[in-house]
Automatic annotation (TrEMBL):
Pfam families: NAGidase. PROSITE patterns: GH84 (PS52009). InterPro entries: GH, Glycosyl_Hydrolase_84, O-GlcNAcase_cat. This is OGA GlcNAcase. GO terms for biological process: glycoprotein metabolic process. Residues 165-180 have a biased composition (Low complexity). It comes from the Eukaryota. Residues 161-181 are annotated as: Disordered. GO terms for molecular function: beta-N-acetylglucosaminidase activity. Residues 1-150 form the GH84 domain.
Amino acid sequence: VFPSLAQAQASVANEVYKELGQPPVFLFCPTEYCSSLCSPSPSQSCYLQTIGQELLPGIGVIWTGPKVVSQELSGVLLEEVEAVLRRRPVIWDNLYANDYDCRRVFLGPYMGRAPGLMSRLHGLLLNPNCELQANFIPIHTLGTWFQSELGSCALPEHAGTWPLSPGSSDSQGAQDGSYSPQEALELALRDWVAEINQQALEPGR
């Protein structure tokens, strides 16, 4: 029925999206969801070109970056992806993921993401460590990064893309629009120690 896999996927996704009443959040994960899976590159991929052309504009497209687990995300790469998909991507960030290697637990701060990256994104999802307690620092420092990105967004249309969360960080970096992984880590560690001490005082602990 369809001349290509991409056209088949786009057609099915469009029909489901319309059947559900075109919800405000509807995500599509393409077969080529990172640069290393694209042939020969994201901008020259016939598959991604078709997805960008055929997929309805209200559907978000998931992207993990240069690789499935990307150590860095750059604005240049996201510009290329945005151009071929005809929309800003939703980053599915596997920086902390360890479901593929249970011996690996990442407790470091959120890092390797270029400043001003948020203006290139439609959203960001964090894939955490499988161990619940190990995600305090990853999620805490992601929040600090997010606050710094909100502070650095110069264009009003970018600010409206992301929901503002209640509360604010006392980190100077978040206030002045810069992000320091080391400062974010120290802030997270301070709050984590306080959380651990509070749990230790609870009955039955």
